[in-house]
């Protein structure tokens, strides 16, 4: 069974600044962020600044969070109890409406809740910051693996970085291992996430072992 993607916490600005793409005319539109994330199920918080009701249980609301504005649309009555200026959280699916020359990105809600605690927005923002750091880390590592990219300190590929790490550990290890701090000091311009990923691969390949936490030794042939 195919697993559903988890909801991704976002500030609205990130949705609005994402790129709309589709492979061909038969494909659905996709919303892609600057880090290459495909947005499909999102989680936002904000105030309702505009609300309109129509036929067949239709309700459309405009939600603003201080960074941007987006429309949320429902045809099942799930938004009917909301009022202008309610502070809400919305978990839903990104949808793209295409009519003639107009393309609109909106959210189809799956879960909608009124929020009474103002601190919930602070918590939401902190979780987003954690998520961004994690995504940026993964993005940096993936870029490094492509190869041919200047990583700093004269290193131009992920394989080059792994060889450099082996050289450093062989040089510095006096029988007690080499700490991650020592390695990073030798490679000040290389992103720590890339170093950690390269060490992990060397460890998984049986070339490094870790006698203590964040201490590494090289396994000689």
Can you offer a commentary on this structure?
With 221 residues, this protein is an alpha+beta fold. It has 2 domains: 8-115, Nucleic acid-binding proteins (OB fold (Dihydrolipoamide Acetyltransferase, E2P), Beta Barrel), CATH 2.40.50.140; 140-218, Orthogonal Bundle (Arc Repressor Mutant, subunit A). The chain has 5 helices and 12 strands. The chain has a 5-stranded mixed barrel. Strands 2-3-4 form a 3-stranded antiparallel β-sheet, with no helix packed on it. The protein has a 3-stranded antiparallel β-sheet with strand order 10-12-11. Helix 3 (158-172) packs across helix 5. The two termini are 44 Å apart.
Strand content: 25-35%
Shape: elongated
Largest sheet entry = 5 strands, mixed, barrel
Distance between the terminal alpha carbons, to the nearest Å? 44 Å
CATH H-tier superfamily of the largest domain: Nucleic acid-binding proteins
Q: Care to count the β-strands?
A: 12
Report the CATH architecture of the largest domain: Beta Barrel
List the helices and strands and how they pair.
Elements: E1 8-9, H1 12-16, E2 19-21, E3 30-32, E4 38-39, E5 41-53, E6 59-64, E7 69-74, E8 87-99, E9 102-114, H2 119-146, H3 158-172, E10 178-179, H4 180-186, H5 192-204, E11 208-212, E12 215-218
Helix pairs in contact: 3-5
Compose a concise summary of this entry.
This protein has five helices and twelve strands.
What key phrases describe this protein's structure?
alpha+beta; OB fold (Dihydrolipoamide Acetyltransferase, E2P); Arc Repressor Mutant, subunit A; 5 helices
């Amino acid at each position: 069974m195919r697993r559903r993607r988890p909801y991704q916490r976002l500030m609205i600005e990130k949705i609005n600044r994402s790129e709309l793409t589709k492979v061909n005319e038969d494909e659905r539109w996709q919303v892609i962020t600057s880090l290459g994330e495909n947005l499909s199920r999102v989680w936002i918080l904000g105030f309702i600044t505009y609300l309109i009701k129509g036929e067949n249980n239709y309700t459309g609301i405009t939600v603003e969070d201080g960074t941007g504005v987006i429309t949320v649309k429902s045809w099942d009555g799930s938004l009917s109890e909301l009022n202008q200026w309610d502070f809400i959280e919305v978990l839903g699916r990104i949808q793209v409406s295409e009519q003639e020359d107009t393309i609109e990105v909106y959210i189809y809600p799956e879960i909608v809740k009124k929020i009474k605690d103002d601190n919930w927005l602070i918590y939401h923002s902190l979780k987003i910051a954690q998520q961004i750091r994690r995504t940026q880390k993964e993005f940096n590592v993936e870029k490094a693996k492509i190869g041919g990219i200047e990583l700093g300190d004269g290193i131009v590929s992920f394989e080059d970085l792994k060889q450099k790490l082996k050289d450093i550990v062989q040089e510095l290890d006096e029988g007690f291992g080499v700490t991650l701090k020592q390695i990073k000091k030798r490679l000040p311009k290389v992103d720590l996430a890339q170093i950690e990923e390269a060490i992990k691969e060397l460890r998984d390949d049986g070339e490094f072992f870790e006698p203590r936490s964040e201490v590494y030794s090289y396994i000689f042939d």
